[in-house]
Amino acid sequence: MTEDRLKVAVLGGGSFGTALASIAADNGATVRQWLRDEALVEKINRDHRNSRYLPDFDINPAVVASSDMRSVLDGAELVFVAIPSKAFRAVVRQARPWLHQRQILVSTTKGIQEDGFKLMSQILEEETGFSHIGVLSGPNLAAEIAEKQLTATVIASDDALTRARVQTTLGCDYFRVYASNDRYGVELGGALKNIYAIAAGMAASLGMGENTRSMLMTRALAEMSRFAVALGANPMTFIGLAGVGDLIVTCSSNRSRNYRVGYAMGQGRTLDEAVDALGQVAEGVNTVSLVCAKARQEGIYMPLAEGLYQVLFNNVPARDMAKLLMLNEQSSDVEFTLSREDVKHARRLEGDS
Ligand SMILES: NC(=O)C1=CN([C@@H]2O[C@H](COP(=O)(O)OP(=O)(O)OC[C@H]3O[C@@H](n4cnc5c(N)ncnc54)[C@H](OP(=O)(O)O)[C@@H]3O)[C@@H](O)[C@H]2O)C=CC1
Ligand SMILES: O=C(CO)COP(=O)(O)O
């Protein structure tokens, strides 16, 4: 019986990796989880709890943790990589000797590598050359998944087998897996929304109201999709779970680590203090620098990201930056129906009349 079970490997012992490992085990897969922390490995295998990242959550006892990469990957047909972006490539390289091209490799990481502006699935592709590669992304706070709150996610891949296998492995009565073939757009959506979650946390702690939050999220969506489309993504992806869906949850919840960094800074903490107090990765801090640099290079208008960058790295007070943003030229609501150029042109005509 056990011989027929799908073998799943999860690389990473953080909150999301742990939640996914447990779902796959609930669905009957044989699941092994790799983490480097030996003490935590022992605790997971003994207590079926991840005391560091998800302390209140009972992990399915069938999940076996290990710090031995080889044994975790041995025979695995589906591999989820849930490692922060800064360490992602190094861990994939460590895994490479035990990966083979029939395997399905799926990134769950919402970040960007500085060198070459690479997304995580591009790193999977570069390091392995495999064809079954996908990205899992969506409004997926790990703590809520652990509580079995009704949740939906997206598996994005141009490979139909990857999409179908992930839907079967993770789909259950509280976790729905929708499919997309816009891997780049889905992955970019997950990385970009972290920027605006920091800004939303800041706005909340500065006492800004619901109108402000709504403006921030909607203009963030315009900015994210403008950036992604300029880089080749499909704009329609941003009306889906991995675009507006993830933006809503991460900009609304103090369970989001990015939101919490912004909230702490709005309360007067420095960036370093906010990140240290979090003790986990907030990918948006790194992403905002990379995205602003790329936007400047490509000539993409990103006032919110640029404003946040000034607050995080150039000591501009958040409240002053918000006021400055309100003084920007008023432009188009939905650029896919009325272009920014048309609005500018109309203003020139008005000036001439
Ligand atoms: N948490 C969430 O709600 C969600 C997270 N994600 C994304 O998934 C990714 C992973 O998330 P999550 O599980 O929450 O991450 P966590 O920050 O909770 O954990 C990261 C894991 O990666 C390990 N790790 C970090 N650096 C290294 C390294 N150099 N070598 C080996 N292992 C390393 C950590 O090990 P150690 O403890 O030893 O440092 C830990 O096991 C994130 O980048 C995030 O964007 C996506 C959806 C939801
Ligand atoms: O991506 C997430 C929810 O979808 C998690 O966000 P944080 O990394 O900000 O915790």
From TrEMBL:
UniProt key word Lipid metabolism = yes
User: Span of the secretion signal?
Assistant: none
Q: Name one GO molecular function term.
A: glycerol-3-phosphate dehydrogenase [NAD(P)+] activity
Q: What is its EC number?
A: 1.1.1.94
Q: In which pathway does it act?
A: Membrane lipid metabolism; glycerophospholipid metabolism
Binding of NADPH occurs at: 15-16, 36, 53, 110, 142, 257, 281, 283
Name all Glycerol-3-phosphate dehydrogenase NAD-dependent C-terminal domain ranges. 182-322
Task: Give the binding site residues for sn-glycerol 3-phosphate.
Answer: 110, 138, 193, 246, 256-258
The enzyme class is: oxidoreductase
Top-level taxonomic group? Bacteria
Q: Which UniProt keywords apply?
A: Cytoplasm, Lipid biosynthesis, Lipid metabolism, NAD, NADP, Nucleotide-binding, Oxidoreductase, Phospholipid biosynthesis, Phospholipid metabolism
Alphabetized Pfam families for the sequence: NAD_Gly3P_dh_C, NAD_Gly3P_dh_N
Q: Where in the cell is it found?
A: Cytoplasm
Major place of localization?
Answer: cytoplasm
Glycerol-3-phosphate dehydrogenase NAD-dependent N-terminal domain residues: 7-159
What chemistry does it catalyse, as a reaction equation?
Answer: sn-glycerol 3-phosphate + NADP(+) = dihydroxyacetone phosphate + NADPH + H(+); sn-glycerol 3-phosphate + NAD(+) = dihydroxyacetone phosphate + NADH + H(+)
Active site (catalytic residues): 193 (proton acceptor)
Which NCBIfam families does the record cross-reference, listed alphabetically? PRK00094.1-2, PRK00094.1-4, PRK00094.2-4
Family under the similarity heading = Belongs to the NAD-dependent glycerol-3-phosphate dehydrogenase family.
| HAMAP family on file | NAD_Glyc3P_dehydrog
Task performed by this protein = Catalyzes the reduction of the glycolytic intermediate dihydroxyacetone phosphate (DHAP) to sn-glycerol 3-phosphate (G3P), the key precursor for phospholipid synthesis.
**The name this protein goes by in its record:** Glycerol-3-phosphate dehydrogenase [NAD(P)+]
What species is given as this protein's source? Modicisalibacter luteus
Source species taxonomy: Bacteria, Pseudomonadati, Pseudomonadota, Gammaproteobacteria, Oceanospirillales
**What gene name is given for the protein in this entry?**
gpsA
